[in-house]
Amino acid sequence: MRGSIKKDGNSWNVVFDLGKDPVTGKRKQKRKRGFKTKKEAEKYINEQLNAIDKGTYFEPSEITLSEYLDYWLENHAKPNTAHRTYENYQYMINLHLKPVLGPIKISKLQPSHLQEYYAQKLSNGKIDEGGLSAQSVKHHHRLIFKALKDAVKWQLIVRNVAEAVTPPKTRKVEMQTWDNEQVKVFLNVSKDSPYYPIYLTAINTGMRRGEVLGLRWQDIDFDNNIVYVRQSLQEVKNVGLTFKEPKSGKTRSISVTPSLIKELKKIYKQQLENKLLIGQGYKDLDLVFAQRNGKPIQPTEMARNYRKIVDLSGLPYIRFHDLRHTHATLLLKQGVHPKVVSERLGHSTIGITMDTYTHVLPNMQKEAALLLEQLIK
User: Fold this and answer.
1) What's the pTM?
2) Side-chain half-sphere of 119: how many Cα atoms within 13 Å?
3) Strand partners, 4
């Protein structure tokens, strides 16, 4: 081992060789004190020597926030997050964080630096002109908080200064949904659209757009009218369309109506005909909703058609994602237990469902009161 471990009273100290200084030619050593056990000291020195061998070692006191964020992106975010999440982190770091906070040494970063950064981004944070939204700045705060939390865990800094900073408050946007009559109008107008089965599935299941477009035939239990959510389609910059696990990372099951199953069987029959006609040119990915040649449906193409259908229907515009909210709202208004709705949506806890759909609860409270009055009259 290119280092040593010594006991000093009740703690352990380490010293290891950093190699020669390129300027002076003298051998450089690093010392660190205060390890509670010999095992902790051995683990630390082995990690540092391994980093030196790989060329990824750096002095915590000297590294800038810019250098650390590059290191964090490559060694933590890239292998541990979805590709799109990594791209978002990369965008925020390179276009926003590094130009303003990058030159500051990570050991010298103070809460005031972050508070001033948030204020600056709110007033003049856009690349062209104008300020970023409070929600966008809050995303920056979450990224910084996570990156610095890892820096503390890796013993690069003593504390996470982001803990002492208050991110900007965000205004809760009122949810936009359709009622049951509006849903009927939309589905009726979209009947002739090639994407009608997708809209029908989204409204009937509450699945996210990527989950619907990633649905496979192997994920459908036709005998029991159950759809399993096991993968999601996503569009990644410089990569194209790829598949990933659902947002929750877990498979979930959704019971569906016989009428939806009937519609899906029609698609299956049509796909068999397409396979026979196209032959070897058919790209069989087992997708329920696919182009005529079997390839995944382009989300942007479907989005344009969705907008067109909403305009034709004369309904107030809601996003495609709001079909998911519409699904949940209609069920809750019909008295379906929030736990069931939570499971259909794939929320990790029922609390998320209750917080998201608080706008429905007052009506449910009124109906509950009226039902109770009828029971005790």
Assistant:
1) 0.67
2) 7
3) 15
